[in-house]
């Protein structure tokens, strides 16, 4: 069974304190891994897609990396507006057409000023 | 601006009542999806549709029904058979060409039981 596990469940940082969020996955062949940001009471907002081990993507203070078993979302010098829940999702091989994503439970990130 | 519109933002259901959640997109996306989000859990897929007049069950379809009569619209009905309907419901859409494409989400409907 395809599974995605995110850690930690919650993370509290001071403004400017860099850290990483983890997404571990077990799937029968990875087609793509997605990172989303979700603010309270809102829908997830797409951040990155990673396709193969070794790939990296960056956007402002965020950098996502991918290995064969996990992905990291690195946050460099975060600001209070980076506070949100970050979701990881994977799409496995074998599903044609519409995407059946498997989501992790999310990491709730709080950045204190 | 293109996007996905879900309505209403909040919805209350009485015992034995069916309720319908609306989802409309103007992104010209082929596929549409419904997810349920519960506290501390990942999003779980209820139904998805790749094309008009066709849809497939996801992992937790029991107690729910959908229709896809137009490309832009994918309403979800929560029936009285769904015994634990209180949750945050999210609609998403994606294109199906050009390789692996991300799903884009609406801002959700929060359903509660009276």
> Helix and strand succession of chain B?
EEEEEEEEEEE
Assembly type: heterodimer
How many beta strands in the DSSP annotation of chain A? 11
Total beta strand runs of chain B: 11
The number of helices of chain A is: 0
Structural class of chain A: mainly beta
The largest β sheet of chain B comes out as: 7 strands, mixed
List the keywords.
heterodimer; A: 113 residues; mainly beta; six-stranded mixed beta sheet; five-stranded antiparallel beta sheet; 11 strands; 58% strand; B: 114 residues; seven-stranded mixed beta sheet; four-stranded antiparallel beta sheet; 0% helix; globular
Polypeptide structure, described:
The complex is a heterodimer of chains A (113) and B (114). Chain A has no helices and 11 strands. The radius of gyration of chain A is 14 Å and the shape is globular. The model of chain A has no long low-confidence stretch (mean pLDDT 93). In chain A, the strands form 2 sheets. In chain A, strands 2, 4, 5, 9, 10 and 11 form a 6-stranded mixed β-sheet that branches. Chain A has a 5-stranded antiparallel β-sheet with strand order 1-3-8-7-6, with no helix packed on it. By secondary structure, chain A is mainly beta. Chain B has 114 residues and is mainly beta. Chain B contains no helices and 11 strands. In chain B, strands 2, 4, 5, 6, 9, 10 and 11 form a 7-stranded mixed β-sheet that branches. In chain B, 38% of the residues are buried. The chains are: A mainly beta (113), B mainly beta (114). The A-B interface holds A 4, 9, 31-32, 34, 36, 41-46, 49, 51, 87, 89, 91, 97-106 and B 4, 6, 31, 33, 40-45, 48-50, 56, 58, 90, 92, 94, 96, 100-108, 110.
């Amino acid at each position: 069974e395809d599974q995605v596990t995110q850690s930690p469940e919650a993370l509290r940082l001071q403004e400017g304190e860099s850290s990483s969020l983890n997404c571990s996955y077990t799937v029968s062949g990875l087609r793509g891994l997605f990172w989303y940001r979700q603010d309270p009471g809102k829908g997830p907002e797409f951040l990155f897609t990673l396709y193969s081990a070794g790939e990296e993507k960056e956007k402002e203070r965020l950098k996502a990396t991918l290995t064969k078993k996990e992905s990291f979302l690195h946050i460099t010098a975060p600001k209070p507006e980076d506070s949100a829940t970050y979701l990881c999702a994977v799409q496995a091989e074998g599903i044609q057409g519409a995407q059946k994503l498997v989501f992790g439970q999310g990491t709730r990130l709080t950045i204190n000023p | 601006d293109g996007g996905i519109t879900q309505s209403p933002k909040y919805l209350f259901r009485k015992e034995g009542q069916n309720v319908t959640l609306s989802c409309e997109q103007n992104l010209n996306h082929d596929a549409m999806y419904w997810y349920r989000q519960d506290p501390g859990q990942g999003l779980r897929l209820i139904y998805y549709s790749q094309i008009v007049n066709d849809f497939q069950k996801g992992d937790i379809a029991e107690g729910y029904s959908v229709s896809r009569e137009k490309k832009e619209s994918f309403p979800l009905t929560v029936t009285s058979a769904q015994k634990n309907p209180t949750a945050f419901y999210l609609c998403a859409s994606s294109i199906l060409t050009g390789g692996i494409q991300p799903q884009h989400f609406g801002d959700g409907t929060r359903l509660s039981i009276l």
